[in-house]
Amino acid sequence: MCVRISRTLTITEEKIKQYAFLSGDFNQIHLDQKEAERYKFKEPIAHGMLTMGLTLEIASSFTEKGMRISTYEMQFIKPIFQNDLIYIVAKKKKQDYGSIYLEITGRKQNELVVRGELALERLSSIHFNNATKESGM
């Protein structure tokens, strides 16, 4: 089982445009230079959910058959711009019966830009926990 894994990803203009199309989020702060500057950014910023989704790929290295993501939280510390190269690291914080807890960080030129946590749970433990709660045990 994996304990730590890292990947590098580039947030391209194409990814930003595709995400806007798929999500319906055409907020011009993500697509237009002048609109981004109006909000004091040097250029359009990537969608936070795009970054979150691309970062999620790293969790697959920790996933085993019969698991699902139960929680996923991310804090966006600094803006991510088109063509930024983001170095993502996922570390296993702990593992207990049926669950794996990951800490995720993303850096741009050694500067922290995102951090978050993700929990993976075995479907059998989720069903057991829900059944236990419902039965009052």
TrEMBL record:
Q: Which residue ranges traverse the bilayer?
A: none
Where does the source fall among the domains of life? Bacteria
| Every MaoC-like domain range | 6-95
Instruction: Read off the InterPro entries from this record.
Output: HotDog_dom_sf, MaoC-like_dom
A matching Pfam family: MaoC_dehydratas
Checking PANTHER family in the record gives: (3R)-HYDROXYACYL-ACP DEHYDRATASE SUBUNIT HADB (PTHR43841:SF3), 3-HYDROXYACYL-THIOESTER DEHYDRATASE HTDX-RELATED (PTHR43841)
Q: What is this protein called?
A: MaoC-like domain-containing protein
Q: Which organism is it from?
A: Peribacillus loiseleuriae
